[in-house]
Amino acid sequence: MAALAEVGSAGHFRELLQQKGKSLVVVHFWAPWAPQCIQMNDVMAELAKEHPQVTFVKLEAEAVPEVSEKYEISSVPTFLFFKNSQKIDRLDGAHAPELTKKVQRHASSSTISAGPNDNAKEDLNVRLKKLTNAAPCMVFIKGSLQEPRCGFSRQMVEILNKHNIMFSSFDIFSDEEVRQGLKTYSNWPTYPQLYVAGELIGGLDIVKELEASGELDTICPKAHKLEDKLKVLTNKASVMLFMKGNKQMAKCGFSKQIIEILNSTGVDYETFDILEDEEVRQGLKTYSNWPTYPQLYVKGELVGGLDIVKELKENGELLSILKGEN
User: Fold this and answer.
1) What is the pLDDT of residues 57-85, one digit of tens each?
2) 8 Å CB contact between 239 and 267
3) Where does the chain cross the membrane (predicted)?
């Protein structure tokens, strides 16, 4: 059967994962307003014909928010891969070749229990190299920067923040393949792990030693350079919107709504796609002390997100704020 299964509730989603057990389940978090999602549904339908043993599911992200929030779906399309009700992999964005590759890899691992797959290992090493070089300073932790999920990860984040170090993070709980593979790749058996310019620095004990010796500040990139960049970006136009996607193609419902509101005012504005720059995406949250997107700035000053913009529109204040009158 090549048709895509549709999930309309959190209960239905849980039942489907339990029913499928050890077989691979691929879930497309999509939105009907996004043309790239429609295109990827067609790709999923073709993959379903090629892999009848795999269950392909589409789930409208904004219609089942409890599931989207649980798995931190921040843009569409996003694909999650499950076995035994556990998430084993993730793909963000409309990347048909990468989706096909991941389906082939995980589907084959469901049916083949033989020895090591050299090609898969090579693919993983390429991916790990990209991840460790994703930002000048990368930390692999349990949980997120906002909610570390172990004491060692929390201490690591606190030390880096205390020293005003600019860094990005990867939640190893979100990807079991990365979690296990990075131990071999780096020859370091525990987490957290800190990388600078793609090179392993070490874990929490090493970072504590570097802090005590004063070397940490010379090894890791400082945040002030990024702050300069963010100051320039937030002042790039009189009205600047930081969003997922751009004016022509929003990549999440919140960004789409705020674009519609701004367009209705007739005021000129520029946008910045945070999905194109992970350093800006993470750094702006700290710079503005605002944890979510979209974010609207007028003359370099944060106005707020979608809810605040909606309130200002309802109160009749939005136009005067956008014109810099308030």
Assistant:
1) 999 999 999 999 999 898 899 999 998 88
2) yes
3) none
Q: Is the pTM of this model over 0.70?
A: no
Determine the length of the chain.
Answer: 326
Name the amino acid, one letter, at 37. C
Closest CA to 324 of 232, 263, 230, 239: 239
Per-residue burial over 147-157, b if 16 or more Cβ lie within 10 Å, else e, is ebeeebbbebb
Helix (H) or strand (E) holding 59: strand 55-60
List pLDDT tens digits, range 195-254. Answer: 998 999 999 999 999 999 999 988 887 655 678 889 889 999 999 999 999 998 898 999
The DSSP letter of residue 4 is P
91 — phi, psi (to 5°)?
-140, 120
Task: Tell me how far apart the alpha carbons of residues 182 and 190 are, in angstroms, rounded to a whole number.
Answer: 10
Catalogue all structural domains in the chain, each as residue range(s) with its CATH number.
4-108 (3.40.30.10), 124-219 (3.40.30.10), 228-323 (3.40.30.10)
Strand order in the sheet with 270-273: 270-273, 239-243, 295-298, 301-304
Can you tell me whether residue 51 is helix, strand or coil?
A: coil
Instruction: Please measure the distance between the N-terminal and C-terminal CA atoms of the chain and give it in whole angstroms.
Output: 59
72 Cβ contact partners less than 8 Å away, ≥ 6 residues apart? 144, 174
Neighbouring-strand partners of residue 11: none
Among candidate residues 62, 88, 89, the one with its CA nearest the CA of residue 76: 62
Helices 96-111 and 118-132, packing angle to 10 deg:
130
Residue 238 in contact with residue 324, Cβ under 8 Å? yes
Burial of 238 per CB tally in 10 Å (0-12, 13-18, 19+): middle
Q: What b/e string do you get for 240-260 counting C-beta neighbours within 10 Å, with b at 16 or more?
A: bbbbbbbeeebbbbbbbebbe
